[in-house]
Design brief:
alpha/beta; binds 2-acetamido-2-deoxy-beta-D-glucopyranose; 371 residues; single chain; two-stranded antiparallel sheet; 24% helix; Glucose Oxidase, domain 1; nine-stranded mixed β-sheet; globular
Length: 371
């Protein structure tokens, strides 16, 4: 108890010393003139982000209104959901979630593995699950990754600047805004589109190590993947959920148990993924995606070392802190990919319902694909 008190005191002091230039309520700040009847009127291009120079790198703050909490999920509406129905043609379903025990040792070894306990009782059995939500297939909520310039608490800035202090996230009485319960309440349904980068790379005889290097996938390569899949030039629709199969999971699952268990302790622990760069962000922004997903630890390659618009930033910071866009990671795309190749289609119907945890940071996505 004493230790906890001391920790909270230390955090409060940290927050009091917060130095970043917050946009105060008294200053008029810039938002797009959002009109629910015409959701893309005055839609800013990537070059026009952020709408106000005081906002952090490429933030889309105010684009859905200054108090908006749904961010990129606003791209999903009744008509995009009804249009996605046509992707259900065979009645086949796919679980996109790994077992919660996989990876066997969390890829970031600072994270504790799943604890699963059984509680026998009189005539029935309960079980108890204690988990870090980042260890297996996951949906990163909007409290997970603020902007920061040097990973220090005093530079944290969350989506639409809706959280004043870190204590509102981790303190004894957290606020609820941007909690993962919002995504649960949204009951996410839409059209998924797969880019099978790993399949394309194999067909090109391109070998790469997604497990031990920061191999970084470019948008030029993703355009080539779409062409290889015979997709039309305009293959995305507003509200789409983009899934990229980087090949990380396939490579991980090909390791034996010993190699899987030592992987998290390999030097620096890099992993392959998308290149964190302005051109990647622009390519994604112009597609008006509601969510992005991949079969790897972070969607982008790790460690985060890149510079975006002249500032050290990760895709995580811009997606989650800037656009209010969640990320799904460690998504199991293996069986779905085989089925999509069989039918020669790349779009499918998706449902996602994170756990309804008030003030939650992340959750298993409970994602299902239907074709
Ligand atoms: C719903 O989204 C579609 C794009 O998927 C967009 O064209 C349409 O304007 C949106 N409808 C409303 C009422 O905002
Ligand atoms: C991080 O950056 C902030 C703002 O520039 C600065 O006040 C703080 O001292 C820095 N912290 C570290 C650990 O470098
Ligand atoms: C890949 O390698 C195979 C076997 O060597 C060869 O037949 C094929 O043409 C190569 N494909 C490309 C795209 O280079
Ligand atoms: C990948 O790692 C190398 C070596 O550490 C580094 O020079 C390069 O900038 C990194 N690339 C990316 C995209 O992170």
């Amino acid at each position: 108890m004493h230790i906890r008190r001391t920790l909270f005191l230390a955090i409060s002091e940290f927050c009091a010393a917060k130095a970043h230039p917050t946009v105060s309520a008294s200053q008029p700040h810039v938002a797009r003139q959002y009109n629910a009847a015409d959701s893309y009127a005055h839609w800013p291009s990537y070059a026009e982000l952020p709408p106000d120079a005081r906002y952090p790198t490429r933030a889309a703050w105010g684009v859905w209104g200054n108090d908006d909490v749904d961010g990129a999920l606003n791209h999903i509406n009744e008509s995009s959901i009804l249009a996605a129905r046509s992707e259900i043609q065979l009645g086949r379903t796919f679980n996109l979630n790994l077992p919660l025990e996989e990876p066997s040792i969390p890829i970031n070894p600072n994270r504790k593995p799943l604890q699963h306990l059984f509680q026998p009782s009189t005539g029935y059995t309960d079980d108890v699950v204690v988990m870090n939500t980042q260890i297996s297939t996951q949906f990163d909520g909007l409290r997970h990754f603020p902007y920061s310039t040097n990973n220090s608490v005093d530079t944290y800035q969350w989506y639409n600047d809706l959280i004043p202090d870190y204590e509102d996230v981790i303190g004894p009485a957290p606020s609820t805004v941007l909690g993962v319960q919002q995504a649960a309440d949204k009951a996410i349904v839409g059209r998924g589109v797969l880019l099978d980068f790993a399949g394309w790379a194999l067909a090109q005889n391109l070998t790469y190590d997604a497990l031990h290097t920061n191999y970084s996938i470019s948008i030029t390569q993703l355009d080539a993947v779409a062409a290889w899949q015979n997709m039309p030039t305009e293959w995305s629709r507003p509200g789409d959920i983009l899934f990229v199969r980087t090949g990380w999971l396939e490579q991980y699952q090909a390791l034996d148990a010993y190699e899987q268990n030592i992987l998290p302790y390999s030097k620096e622990g890099p992993s392959g993924g998308l290149l964190a760069a302005d051109e990647t962000l622009e390519w994604l922004w112009e597609k008006k995606l509601s969510l992005v997903a991949a079969d790897n630890p972070a969607f982008e390659s790790t460690p985060f070392t890149q510079v975006i618009s002249g500032v050290p930033r990760s895709l995580h910071q811009v997606f989650i802190g800037g656009w209010g866009m969640s990320i799904m990671e460690f998504v199991d795309l293996e069986q779905l990919t085989v089925a999509l190749h069989d039918v020669g289609r790349w779009a499918f119907f998706v449902t996602i319902c994170p756990m309804n945890i008030v003030s939650g940071i992340a959750s298993p996505p409970n994602a299902i694909a239907l074709i």
